[in-house]
Sequence to fold (393 residues):
Amino acid sequence: MAIARNIQDSLARASWIRKMFEEGARLKEVHGPENVFDFSLGNPNLEPPEAFLDALAREAADRGPGRHAYMPNPGYPDVREAVAQRVSREQEVSVSGAEVVMTCGAAGALNVIFKAILDPGDEVLTPTPFFVEYGYYAANHGGKLVTVPTAEDFSLDLSAFEAAISPKTKAVLLNSPNNPTGQVYSTESLERLSALLARKSKELGRVIYLLSDEPYRGIAFDGIKVPSILAAYENSIVATSYSKELSIPGERIGFLAVNPAAEDHDLLLAALAMTNRILGFVNAPALLQRAVGAVPHAMVNPAPYQANRDILCKGLAEAGYRFTTPKGAFYLFPKSPIPDDVAFVAELQKERILAVPGSGFGGPGHFRLAFCVDSATIENALPGFARAIKNVS
Ligand SMILES: Cc1ncc(COP(=O)(O)O)c(C=O)c1O
Fold:
């Protein structure tokens, strides 16, 4: 077979998750999609804000010259400036357009960053459980993802980070609000992590970067503010997208923002512009850049997600499930009532409920529910959740 061996291996490893999705498709065909309660996918169910759709239509209708031409690899300067103003407000650090690179989603941003900073064998530390694509993204560029345990409520465990840092550590990658747990890391924990990274960077004689993957920043509950990474640590880079905040994951638009105080700042930015180009992205889509640049403050209303969280958490708690209440994003990561999370997800399938085993996120003994669904789906699934836990108890 001519397919690359590592891709064959990855396909084989991922196959049981694929089986869950295939089983979901089968259940929908047998019972009708309305009788299957699908919590498996993080695909936003809210429509994009009107302001964004209007801006997109206006930009698409503009027949001015050069609207579809190549541009500087980091993106349109005026769009980067508009994005920088938004980042400055959110992060409480003054960022300029020169420090922003427009990317093909957060996934594109992370690959661009890894390509720019990783040498072969370099390690990227991330707390568990984690967005499973991180391992592939690091490996794409010769790096290795190293997972770091978290506390019982998925908050950061600083002593675990201290133990995991090695001479090969090039970066720490955080995701807050988190997929799959909904945890938001506190300012105090970020400050402690930042002090640790500053000390370890000094010992190593080179920078350890702090990377913040934050596509769920705008989806935070109960009025909490997601703490700033750029304010916490100088050698930091934000990677994010509009996928969840504008409900446009199919459009592939996002950005990265480099801390203005980062060491070798100009070289780092030149490297990021270059890796955006040579990874084959060349630049983020022109039309989408102009549309998001025109409405930099547009955002979906997170209230429906919070309402869904409340219905789901109340129902599952009443049924006897144990979990940490999410502070943001649209995921819940309950404990599986039996140690084998794959077996419990199969039990849920008997109730026509689709979930993803925690093992798929480096969090065995748990399962993930994406609650970016109609609230009726949650209400109608609750009796099935109650039966499933009873059946295994
Ligand atoms: C934590 C996390 N990071 C990155 C991504 C990728 O985002 P995008 O689709 O904007 O590339 C996702 C998508 O679900 C995610 O959950």
